[in-house]
Amino acid sequence: MKKNEPNWLMVLRTVMPLGLSYIPIGLACGVLLHAAGFNHLLTALISVMVFSGGAQFLIASMLTINAPMTTIILMMFFLELRYALLGSSLSRYLKGQSLPFILTFAFSMNDENYAVNYLKFATDKHWKPKQALLVEHYSLIFWTISNIIGSLIGSALTINLKVVDFALTALFIYMAIMQTKSRLIILVSAISGVLTVFFLVLMKSTLGLVVATLIASLTGYFIERYLMEHKPESHLLYKVHDPTRQSAMEESDE
Amino acid sequence: MQSVSSMTSMDHFLLIIFCAIVAFIPRFFPLLFFTKRAIPEWFNEWMRFVPVSLFTALVVKSVFIDSRYHIMTTGNLGMIISAILVGFVAYRTRSMTLSVVIGLVSVMILVLVFHI
């Protein structure tokens, strides 16, 4: 890391990979929102106010099938419920911050900047809440501008929904892989996959996602607790090899 | 592309406001609550399994489940192959940008050119 680098530049460098990957996703999302009937101003507004790729994709695709507003809002509620879990896991790094800070921080927190900030807080002792907030705002700028540009070019394009939707899937695969630190996590991921299919087909609603997530994560928690107590040598607790050796660095920092 | 929604811009505006409120509540209150109180240990340990469960669930939904909540049996081979490829790229490179771009290119080729 360079010395004497100004703070804004250092944070910008941290957020750059995220910002760049927001460009194709944001463009796709803007195109999709345009197709759903949003004008440019509304697309800008939703990018700032909701600021969640998954949610905006969902709103756009539900609008194109003329779903009623109450259904969309209910779906949003269950989709966004996961932020409760993300927020709680970041909270120990934000102790002692003022109410306005927590308000602002919560307003612009989403999956991706959470991942960046969580990794920074966990590995860098000098990472400050103020810098974390700056990460959120940089990512917000990248996201909103990409959405607006997507909305502007949307009228000139014929899009294939399946293809642009996959940008988000790829992002979630990446984030799942980054979470895979032990063999047990791979097992939890597999359990979650099977439960997701089961509950989505059973419940015919995205609520199935919430149920599958809750059961899979609780199963992982109880398996780990059982193994720690009874079989601490279990192969399930082995760490997963990291080809770039990033996590090896994380551990030595702790 | 033409607008297919029957809602007006005012409806869209209201929708955004409601969605923003619904998005804000779960982001704000747990964060506020747990910055004031200690998080129980079991909660932290449980939390370590939540993101991976959720992300897997979202991926499985978009690759294997269609919009009417049926299991997709045709037309998703391109997505399955691309998803495996993205997983491999993410594991090897740990780069978000590369994962997304390679995933998009792969799905474009497989779906738009080969129609699988």
* Gyration radius over CA of chain A: 20 Å
Percent range of helical residues of chain A:
over 70%
Biggest interface goes to: A-B, 112 and 83 residues
Q: What's the end-to-end separation of chain B, in Å? A: 25 Å
Keywords (chain B): Membrane, Transmembrane, Transmembrane helix
Protein name (chain B): Integral membrane protein
InterPro entries (chain B): Brnchd-chn_aa_trnsp_AzlD (IPR008407)
Transmembrane segments (chain B): 12-34, 71-91, 98-115
Structural account:
- By secondary structure, chain A is an all-alpha fold.
- Chain A has helices at residues 7-35, 40-49, 53-64, 69-80, 82-90, 99-107, 111-123, 129-154, 161-179, 183-203, 207-230, 246-253.
- Chain A starts with 6 loop residues before the first helix and ends with a helix.
- Chain B is mainly alpha-helical and 116 residues long.
- Chain B has two domains: 7-37; 50-115, no CATH class.
- Chain B is built from five helices and no strands.
- The mean pLDDT of chain B is 87.
- Chains A and B meet through helix 1, helix 2, helix 3, helix 4 and helix 5 of A and helix 1, helix 2, helix 3, helix 4 and helix 5 of B.
- Chain B: The chain crosses the membrane at residues 12-34, 71-91, 98-115.
What key phrases describe this protein's structure?
heterodimer, A: 254 residues, 0% strand, B: 116 residues, mainly alpha, 2 domains, transmembrane helix (chain B), Integral membrane protein (chain B)
Give a quick precis of the structure:
Chain A is an all-alpha fold and 254 residues long. Chain A has 12 helices and no strands. Chain B has helices at residues 9-36, 41-47, 50-64, 77-93, 96-113.
Topology record:
The complex is a heterodimer of chains A (254) and B (116).
Chain A: H1 7-35, H2 40-49, H3 53-64, H4 69-80, H5 82-90, H6 99-107, H7 111-123, H8 129-154, H9 161-179, H10 183-203, H11 207-230, H12 246-253
Helix pairs in contact in A: 1-3, 1-8, 1-9, 2-8, 3-4, 5-7, 7-8, 10-11
Chain B: H1 9-36, H2 41-47, H3 50-64, H4 77-93, H5 96-113
Helix pairs in contact in B: 4-5
Pfam families (chain B): AzlD
Keywords (chain B): Membrane, Transmembrane, Transmembrane helix
Organism (chain B): Lactiplantibacillus xiangfangensis
